[in-house]
Amino acid sequence: MWNVDVASSLSALLGIAEVSIRHAIDTKLRSYANDIAGTTKWIEKLDELPDLMDAFNTTRRNLYKAADESRKTRPVHHPRHGVTINHDDLVAHIMFGTWGQLLPERFRSDRLDPQGRPVQDQDNLAARRRLWRESLHAGFPNMKNDPRGFNTGNKVRDLRRLRNRVSHMDSLLYVDIEHVHDRVLMPLLNSISFDLRDWAMEQSRVHDVLRRRP
User: Which of 40, 53, 101, 189 is deepest in the core (most CB within 10 A)?
Assistant: First the structure.
């Protein structure tokens, strides 16, 4: 029951984090696309944004399919019932993991496939570094001591892994929840907005739940 309680306390915060990260990255990609392709609808212009095309690991077709399925389930009293799919609909269907895979990641020479070849794609890593340098770093204006974006990317990817555990009701008994809450989640929100971090702290029940651990 304690595992259920701690998962519940994390779920709301992870939802806040996912939406905030999505908004931070999408906002900057809109400006990035507008500067290069003359439109803020960057998903429609991936072929004109080579770095983004190399880093973005989903397709327009899959996003449109997911958005269309969502559109069809809207009841008649929904304010957007029958409305044409727009950019926001597509963004809303980009998975948490995809945002993390847009952010920079260190090359790991020890990550090899069975044939001894590097698992990581060097072109992909380079594209993500350029995206961070030219655009995405501005989505995290309060970020400190992370000029190459590796720490920010790692935090997002750590939260995605935790979100998956929470969503699947996996055991959290041996996860350092306090570390993730205090050293990963809250600093990441703080890097986006001081007010966002303070508001999330007001909502958080994590420390109370941790104190009640049996």
Answer: 189
